[in-house]
Amino acid sequence: MHALTFVFVIALCTSAMLRGWLAGRQMHHIYRCRDAVPAAFAADIELVAHQKAADYTIAKTRFSLIGIALELALALLWTLGGGLALLDSGWRQAGLGPLNTGVLVIAGYVLITALIELPLGAYSTFGIEARFGFNRTNLRTYGLDILKLMLLAVILGVPLLYAVLWLMQRTGGWWWLAVWALWLAFSLVITWAYPVLIAPLFNKFSPLADMHLRQRIESLLARCGFTSRGVFVMDGSTRSAHGNAYFTGFGRNKRIVFFDTLIDKLAPEEIEAVLAHELGHFRLKHVVQRLAMSAILSLVGLAVLGWLATSAWFYHGLGVPQPSPYMALLLFTLLAPPFLFLLEPIGSAWSRRHEFQADAYAARQADGAALMRALVKLYRDNATTLTPDPLHSAFYDSHPPAAARIARLAQLVHVVPGCV
Q: What is the pTM of this model?
């Protein structure tokens, strides 16, 4: 057996088993805590709501085991099972040239994988989300969303793919620097264009109509030194009962967005506090930090790929007999995830640190007690588990566990959790 083959199989299986073990821990821990609401939330969240959150999280976690097994099977079938080699051989026989062949092979891989995974997404939406009362979409809207995503992939992804493969073929051994610069520019353009050109394809965005709330928000924006193209309400209720808020874009295209479900459930001072948290990410430069980290990691990844792409053992060890730039890209996307999984806790811890910092910022700029009340309502209405397994949370959770987050806020505003 080729050395890379052995290492790849071990990494894939180890990653899958670790993910499955973490899922098992999560389900067991939540089930053990199912029959008692944590003391900090006992005054605000009823036992039946706590049990719904537990059952919802357990159902999603159990379902994720199917996704883990499918990812493992697909990675092996595409590589050592000869899937990529077969797809490559088929398109090579068409005689369309290396550039067109590369684009068609990658497009074929993406399409086939998406079709295989489509039933999982459909069951998540129309099975689990519907069972717990969160799904509000229908088959027509769901299908149209998929078609829109495919159209965007063709309009945006295909030209980008042609450009990347052309650079890989024409710019010599340092092609990865040119591709990195292209990817960075593309990412910035998409981030800038998303609020006004892409997001409206899927949802309706209306200016905030509540004048009292608008004035309150504008006062907060002035205090925080934040300018945007407006405050909008998104019709999130057409697809889901979950509530959220976010700001998106940069430069002149910055937008503040509230889900209509959040507007309906929170009081004005709570909405202001939630927005102050989101503005905290901006004022504390979390967005810039994440963009910079993404740029650094993508540069490192492309540099590694630049080295691997020139090594015959890289292709042969992963079941591909004919080296090519497009095969290097595909193989790297399949090789990297199992090795990077062990780094997940680092990224999650960094993200949770940002959330704590944004909460502290919100407590200074708005009413910290109102933010606590808002979070408790969101935990309850979104069926967020209050008792995640600590190790599972360390790997996966970008936000602090509910109890830790509320406790930290309670220290900042000098109140007792459950008494706000």
A: 0.91
